[in-house]
Amino acid sequence: MNINKDFHHTNEQLNDELIIIEAAKLNPNHFAPLYEKYYKKIFNYVYQRIDCKDTSFDITSQIFLKALINLPKYQYKGVPFASWLYRIAYNEIMQEFKSKKDLQTINADISDLRYICEETKEPFFEEYLPLIKKLILELNQKDLEIIELRFFEKKGFKEIAEILEISEVNAKVRVYRIIEKLKKSISKIKV
């Protein structure tokens, strides 16, 4: 069995998913398995960014409606279908932020924040939590998005590149530049 480690999907799973996608392109009734498989992940992604359940439900509905309407345009690129859904979600969230600037939030659990400390090679202490959250919220929108995809959504660089429509190298460089920036900020506070 050949496992695509970047996305935690086997090639067989990706091929099975592609069969469902192609069937759904011909008959929208076949879209249900994709909806059921990804609804919760996409909703959680939106909810982490918006932090309002009603608005998150509305946006998630829009995402799946757009996905269904635009499904004939979908092209398989060797990554899970979720990448395409996350790209639509990202665009919908950005639209929402443009109309309501005060919506931006971040919901992360301790293990997500601990992982950021590990990447910065800084020791993790509970008292760093407010500082780390503050520093992350101060990031510009593009930096925040890439950090969320990498650390909170646990996406590989190839999938991040697909979602944000950038190169894989660019995704890696951006993540490590942001990590370096966070590391410097944390170090300044500790001194």
Shape: globular
Structural class: mainly alpha
Q: What fraction strand?
A: under 5%
Average pLDDT, rounded to a whole number, is 81
Q: Which strand order does the major sheet show?
A: 1-2
Q: What level of helicity do the residues show? A: over 70%
CA-CA gap between termini: 50 Å
Low-confidence stretches: 1-7
Q: Could you give the order of the helices and strands? A: EEHHHHHHHHH
The total strand number stands at: 2
**How would you characterize the largest beta sheet?**
2 strands, antiparallel
Tally of separate helices: 9
Rg from Cα? 18 Å
Plain-language structure description:
With about 190 residues, the protein is mostly helical. The chain has helices at about 10-25, 30-50, 55-70, 80-100, 110-120, 130-135, 140-150, 155-165, 170-190, and strands at about 5, 10. A hairpin with a 4-residue loop joins strand 1 and strand 2 (about 10). The longest helix has 23 residues, at about 170-190. The chain is globular, with a radius of gyration of 18 Å. Residues about 1-5 have low confidence and may be disordered.
Keywords:
about 190 residues, mainly alpha, two-stranded antiparallel ribbon, 9 helices, disordered N terminus
Summarize the structure.
This protein has helices at residues 11-26, 32-50, 53-70, 81-99, 110-120, 129-137, 141-152, 157-164, 168-190; strands spanning 3-4, 9-10.
